């Protein structure tokens, strides 16, 4: 596939993710830590400068996290749920600290010209099973004890967290997986799985004009989570998928005008356009 001369969407998204990571993990040093604000991403509470609390922490021990201010806590919970219903997995693509680190590792891999491993479609049922197993684990067990996320986000803030050797092992496995495959953790993320349930009813929509599609495979080749339907489906206009994190790479590389486009609450914000190929 020829590389297109357009990466404005990726640069914009990366800038938003960097800003979100800074606010989530460092802004507390200036505006004061406020861990009652809940966001539907993996945002480790061990980052002492944090201004938010990841929904994973709340799900692990709901009663404990209610604390003394029940009304404030419930307001944050309801606000978090409403935000997911409104924008779905836009949270994953634009604010998740783990997604930010995955994109950094992917960028390094690409610069080092390390070949990505394409996960076969036959493996998807196993990945889906692993994803929902983690949903069960986060709801009924203490995920913090084995969570590898703390080794990515917390050290970046200058702190360390004491945890089990199992967590170290999973951190290594996760790092290797991300090096070998884009957004590897997103494929099994339990929070992403739960948000994916409402992805198709949220205000965020990925759409396709089937008659404009030439089946060039550009969208499939850049999709970080290998969503086949974006490439294959030429009958349905709405091709929003539960696994889609709205990275917009498919729109970015699509060579056909208006073949792919993104809508938020019915307003078309992004669309594919004809671009000159690099020689």
Task: Describe what you observe in this structure.
It is a single chain. The protein has 279 residues and is mostly helical. The chain has a domain of 72 residues: Alpha-Beta Plaits. Helix content is 47%, strand content 7%. The protein is built from 14 helices and five strands. The chain has a three-stranded antiparallel β-sheet. A two-stranded parallel sheet has the order 1-2. The longest helix has 18 residues. The chain starts with 7 loop residues before the first helix and ends in an 8-residue tail after the last strand. The N terminus is likely disordered.
Any key phrases for this structure?
three-stranded antiparallel beta sheet, 5 strands, single chain, 47% helix, Alpha-Beta Plaits, 279 residues, mainly alpha
Q: What's the mean pLDDT score?
A: 82
What separation lies between the terminal Cα atoms? 12 Å
What's the β-strand tally? Answer: 5
Task: Write down the overall geometry.
Answer: globular
Alpha-beta content class: mainly alpha
The CATH architecture name of the domain at 200-271 reads 2-Layer Sandwich
Proportion of residues in extended strands: 5-15%
Backbone CA Rg? 19 Å
**Count of helical stretches:** 14
Mind telling me the CATH class of the domain at 200-271?
Answer: Alpha Beta
What characterizes the major β-sheet? 3 strands, antiparallel
Strand order of the largest sheet: 3-4-5
CATH topology of the domain at 200-271: Alpha-Beta Plaits
Order of helices and strands: HHEEHHHHHHHHHEHHHEE
Helical fraction equals: 40-55%
Low-pLDDT ranges: 1-5
